[in-house]
Structures are given as C-alpha cells and as structure tokens.
Amino acid sequence: MAKRTSKSTARSRSRDNASRSAHAQGGISLFDSYLVHSREPLTVLLFLLPLVVIYEILLVSALRSSGGVVTPDAHRWILTLFEALELGTVGLWLPGVLVLGVLLVWHVVERRPLRVEPSTVGLMWSESIVAALPLLVFSQVALRIPVQAAGGDFDALPLGARIAVSVGAGIYEELLFRLGLIGVLVIVFEDILRTPRRVATMIAVGLSAIAFMAYHPLRGESGALLPSRVVFYLVAGIYFGALFVVRGFGIAVGAHAAYDIFAAVLAPGAATDS
C-alpha cells in the first residue's frame, strides 16, 4: 500500500511539475490546464462542498417522513459505520465529513500545493451537466424506463426533497462504487495480482458496474426481472466508472447528481436514483 501511494504521489508531482513547466513556457492550453486541475483533490473538495452541505442540511430539515429520514441506500450503509457512536441527528452529518475528509487527506498525502482556480470549479459544474445528458437520453429514448430510486416514502416527497436525495445518491454512490470499489480493485489486480494497469482498470470498472447494477431494484411490481433495468444500471455503472477513470471523482459525482436531478424534474412520477 505504501509502495502504491509513493508511486501515485510521484506521478502526481510529475504531472504538476510538467503542468507548471508548460505554463511557464506557454506550451499548455487552457483546456489542458482545466483537465489537470479539475482532477486535483482540493479542487474536487471545493466543487463538492456545496452539494455535501446542502444535502446534509436537508437531511434534518426536508427529508423526514413518517418512516424516518429518507436517504439513498449508499448513505444509509455508510451511516451504519457510525451507529456505535450513538450521535443521533449529528451522526447523519458524518458521511459528509467522511467525503470531505478523504479528499483532504488525499491532498495532504500527495503534498499538492494550496491552489484552486475558481474558473475550474465553475467549468466543472458545466461539464457535469453535459456529461449527464447521454445517460439521460439513453434511459428515456433507448430504453424508455422510469428510473427508480430510494423507494418507500420517496415518491411522496416534495420535488425539493427528491432533488436532495438525488444529490445524496450522486455523492455517496460514487464514493462507494467508484472511489472506493474501483480504487480497491485496481490495487488488488495491479499491485497484488500483477495485472497490467490498463487491464486492471478495465476489470475494476466492469466489476464495479456489476455491483452497481445489483445494488439497484431490478424487478417490477410482479417480482419479475426487468431486462431494461438490468441493461440501464449496468450501462450507467460502466459510464460513471469511465467518467471516474478519465475525468476523476468530482465529475463522476457531478454527472451522477445532475442525471438524478434531471430525472426528478423531468419525470416527477418516478424515483430518481441511478
């Protein structure tokens, strides 16, 4: 593990040094600079901070129902890690602290400079929206399926609360299935099984997509398996995994949350957690 961290740190420093050198020589475009900076953990932290804060506040103000607080399953799973602390309502905020803490530790471990370009954060919002559109078109045009989510009291929630759940799904499902699962699988296949990095990454994305598919409801009201849902969630898992690998954790979260919000607004009669 230490060996891998060292390699990752060296690669990150090399990219940063190359970026700064190219800037000094005028040899890097604004687009290339954006691609580099939008993957940096401190930039991702500031990009996700508003989403995490809004979601965590709405947990106690807008996401309550007769059955308790409505949350995506991924968030609920993370909450179980903190149940032993018996912190009550305050404990609901700990998963958000975990997300931001992981990014902060990542930044410190790789000894990156305290540098964030506001324009990069703004462009990440635009890119996330654009990145959500292909999956939205695929689900609505190619498969014509309602996208189902948290279940239970979700359909009875007002639109604002449903959007809040959609944001939570984007954050915590990406934390579990992309940052967590893909990261662990790449370590297993590349460092332990000595699989070439590209192959290890492809296997990790595929396995995480299968897990992502299995995490979602795949059966209709009759209990029959719905092939359209299997296809959709598998494709969505591969798509978000590819975004994570190519564009980083921030864009994967942003695109996932944007997709779910679009689904909540455009199909208010259906649940929206992809």
Task: Characterise this structure.
The chain has ten helices and two strands; from the N terminus they run H-H-H-E-E-H-H-H-H-H-H-H. The protein is mainly α and 274 residues long. It has a two-stranded antiparallel sheet. Helix 3 crosses helix 6 and helix 6 runs antiparallel to helix 9 (227-247). The longest helix is centred in the middle third of the chain and has 34 residues, at 159-192.
Q: Major sheet, described briefly?
A: 2 strands, antiparallel
The stretches of 5 or more residues where confidence is low (pLDDT under 50) are: 1-12, 18-27, 147-152, 268-273
Number of strands: 2
Basic shape = globular
What is the string of SSEs from the N terminus onward? HHHEEHHHHHHH
Q: Helix- and strand-based class? A: mainly alpha
**Overall mean pLDDT score?**
80
Rg over alpha carbons: 19 Å
End-to-end distance, in Å?
32 Å
- Helicity range: over 70%
Q: Approximately how much beta-strand content do the residues carry?
A: under 5%
* Oligomerization status of the protein chains: single chain
Tally of individual helices: 10
- Placed side by side, the strands forming the largest sheet appear as 1-2
Write the layout of secondary structure elements.
Layout: H1 2-25, H2 30-37, H3 41-61, E1 64-65, E2 68-69, H4 73-80, H5 94-109, H6 118-143, H7 159-192, H8 197-215, H9 227-247, H10 249-266
Antiparallel strand pairs: 1-2
Keywords:
mainly alpha, 71% helix, 1% strand, globular
Task: Write a concise synopsis of the structure shown.
With 274 residues, the chain is mainly α. The protein has helices spanning 2-25, 30-37, 41-61, 73-80, 94-109, 118-143, 159-192, 197-215, 227-247, 249-266, and strands at 64-65, 68-69. The chain starts with a helix and ends in an 8-residue tail after the last helix.
